[in-house]
């Protein structure tokens, strides 16, 4: 079957979000491809739409959870805006026109890689969408925002006590004391100073290293050099829902 990245105009909303905005269009890029990607991760389309669908997104805007389209496109420290869905399952990140073109260009290779590597540690791109605001049905777009939807790896019943963003470099890779918080990702120097090790066992270690090598090769082949390993640590004795049922506590949780 032909690998298509043609967009689909999912919905047109004839609702006034502001006094000047009358029509908002939600564009779904490569819908069938991303549907297969989501299916490979065990995500059903109905569940995804309940969290990320256009009705949900614009509904949040109306309810004030996401006050406006301009808020979705407001820049943070990295130049992008991050928004978590209300159920915590997914994270939306705004991307530039150039970035969304790059994702579409490499989508075939990404699809092949994640379907051939079920244990991949690459970020889970689950959808590429666009919200465009028009003055009317025939008018040109007033504003256009591209965003990708990614799986939230920290959406887990385990309490994440520490999280790290590791690049394999120690230059400037330290978190200021005032920024050290369980919700803030620590860096390479912090990980070294903690003198922690994660017991995964020889078999799992071999699989993990092999997968990291395959994922790194994919990034290298696609000329992507700015990436890191996101790691979450759950400490033995931490709170977990199974404790109430007399279940056993795992020694560690790594993502």
Task: Write a concise keyword list for the protein shown above.
nucleotide-binding; PIPK domain-containing protein; alpha+beta; 2 domains; 1-phosphatidylinositol-4-phosphate 5-kinase activity; 7 helices; Phosphatidylinositol Phosphate Kinase II Beta; PInositol-4-P-4/5-kinase_C_sf; 255 residues
What does this structure look like?
The protein is of the alpha+beta class and 255 residues long. It has two domains: 7-151, Phosphatidylinositol Phosphate Kinase II Beta, CATH 3.30.800; 162-245, no CATH class. It contains seven helices and eight strands. The protein has a six-stranded antiparallel sheet with strand order 1-2-5-6-4-3. A two-stranded antiparallel sheet has the order 7-8. Strand 3 (82-84) and strand 4 (90-95) form a beta hairpin. Helix 2 (45-52) packs parallel to helix 3. The protein is globular. 13% of the residues are buried. Residues 1-6, 9-17, 61-76 and 240-255 have low confidence and may be disordered. It holds the Pfam family PIP5K. Keywords: ATP-binding, Kinase, Nucleotide-binding, Transferase. This is PIPK domain-containing protein. It comes from Symbiodinium pilosum. One of its GO terms (molecular function) is ATP binding.
Question: What is the compact description of this entry?
Answer:
This protein has 255 residues and is of the alpha+beta class. The chain is built from seven helices and eight strands.
